[in-house]
Design goal:
The protein is built from six helices and eleven strands. By secondary structure, the protein is an alpha+beta fold. A six-stranded mixed β-sheet has the order 4-1-2-9-11-10, with helices on both faces. The chain has a five-stranded antiparallel β-sheet with strand order 3-8-5-6-7. The relative contact order is 0.12.
């Protein structure tokens, strides 16, 4: 856990809570990514260690990912219990492998509330690939934004730019508090959630489209390379045959067609 403090006369911290990956291979160690450091943001010199361990607050399930009909599910070691997996695309990479799956837990929100009190800030967001049921990419639970890793930087930028703008207004303490309340109210509103989800969906669609285009180009280049190799091979065979004919002193008998 790291608290980002904008270099302003009136300091408003943003607290980012990382809760880990939703699919973790048993053979690999889980790691928490650290967001890139912004030069305009100062890190506190001394802060208590507030890193949220996924194992402390998360629901972690261990088992094997198998196919059940047209879906991929997680089965426990005895094969008696099965769990639905929201991210079917990611699960394909772990088919028939033993994994640890981190599921959503309301304790994430409780942990985030603790950070609100610890750092005396309302600006807290949870970065996670595990989401409440029927939610993905971005949602708000008890006025706490929950965002996927790929969109975390974008959300943090919106928060930071809002905080910086408030600091530049040179308002009174009451005026800053009012603007800060308006900013927070908007960030957890349905209107912002709809707009931000639209951005996340568009980013996902764009990435998927780029992936398909890259695969198409790679397949096309492979096909073109194969055709070029065939052309070069036939050219070499023709050249070799012509050279043989030209070097032969005796006339070559040409068989008459029937």
């Amino acid at each position: 856990m790291k608290t980002l403090r904008a270099a302003l006369l009136y300091v408003l911290p943003i607290t980012v809570m990382m809760v880990g990956l939703s699919l973790i291979s048993l053979t690999a160690s889980a790691q928490t990514a650290t967001p890139p450091t912004d030069p305009s943001v100062q890190q506190p010199t001394q802060q208590p260690d507030s890193t949220a361990s996924a194992s402390e607050v998360a629901k972690i399930f261990t088992g094997k990912i198998v196919k059940a009909g047209d879906k991929l599910v997680l089965t426990d070691a005895e094969g008696k219990k099965t769990y639905q997996l929201d991210d079917q695309q990611k699960a394909k990479s772990f088919l028939n492998k033993n994994v640890k799956v981190t599921g959503w837990s309301q304790k994430f929100v409780a942990q985030a509330d603790k950070y609100c009190a610890l750092y005396e800030t309302p600006y807290v967001m949870i970065v996670s690939r595990a989401f409440p049921k029927k939610e993905k990419d971005f949602c708000v639970v008890h006025e706490i934004p929950i965002v996927c890793p790929s969109m975390a930087v974008a959300l943090a930028r919106v928060m930071r730019e809002g905080i910086v703008a408030i600091g530049r207004l040179r308002l009174t303490g009451a005026g800053r508090d009012h603007k800060a309340h308006e900013l927070l109210h908007y960030l957890v509103s349905d209107k912002f959630e709809t707009r931000f989800k639209g951005i996340a969906d568009s980013v996902d669609t764009l990435r998927e489209q780029q992936k398909k285009e890259r695969n198409w180009h790679e397949n096309s280049w492979e096909t073109q390379s194969s055709l070029h190799d065939r052309i070069d091979k036939n050219h070499r065979e023709i050249d070799a045959q012509l050279e043989t004919i030209l070097r032969t002193k005796q006339p070559v008998a040409i068989a008459a067609r029937a």
